[in-house]
Design a protein that fits this description.
With about 160 residues, this protein is an all-alpha fold. The chain is about 85% helix and about 0% strand. It has helices at about 5-55, 55-60, 70-90, 100-105, 110-125, 130-155. It is elongated, with a radius of gyration of 24 Å.
Length: about 160
């Protein structure tokens, strides 16, 4: 092999390696930015839920017409817990296979099951098209069903 061919081949290999590393870095940066954006949006949502679930005058403005303010505030607290678990899951802090356990723990609470009974369909519609959100919603829905079936037997 001629020296010029070897130099050109080595140069092309270095260029290709640099390009691949650059693309990988750009993908990683984009993923991290998406995670940061998601955390900011979730923080805003959790702050709003905190205000709504602790301020009856504010909750009164948003409560469904057929629901009392106290009940609405309790359901918002349940939503706050579910949103926190959802964020942990989306950011990868819930290890594979552990989501059903956490969902069962959340749905062991009567207020969380009442929230899910009232607003679970809305969450399912919100999750449409997002595989991870759809999976999260299915797991919580199954946990709610399992816990509601277990309640009468325990009583």
């Amino acid at each position: 092999m001629k020296l010029t061919t070897a130099v050109l081949t080595a140069g092309a290999a270095v260029s290709l390696t640099t390009a691949v590393a650059g693309v990988a870095r750009l993908r990683q940066d984009a993923r991290h930015q998406a995670e940061r954006n998601e955390a900011v949006v979730a923080r805003n949502q959790l702050a709003w839920l905190e205000q709504m679930s602790t301020n009856p005058d504010l909750a009164k403005l948003w409560a469904p017409e057929d629901m009392g303010v106290d009940e609405y505030m309790q359901l918002l607290k349940a939503n706050q817990l579910i949103c926190s678990l959802s964020l942990r899951d989306r950011l990868g802090f819930v290890r594979d296979g552990h989501l059903p356990f956490f969902a069962s723990m959340v749905m062991s609470s009567d207020v969380c099951r009442r929230y899910w009974s009232r607003f679970g369909d809305l969450r399912a519609r919100e999750a449409e098209g997002d595989e991870r959100a759809e999976h999260f919603t299915r797991v919580l829905d199954q946990a709610a069903k399992n816990n509601s079936q277990a309640q009468p037997a325990a009583a």
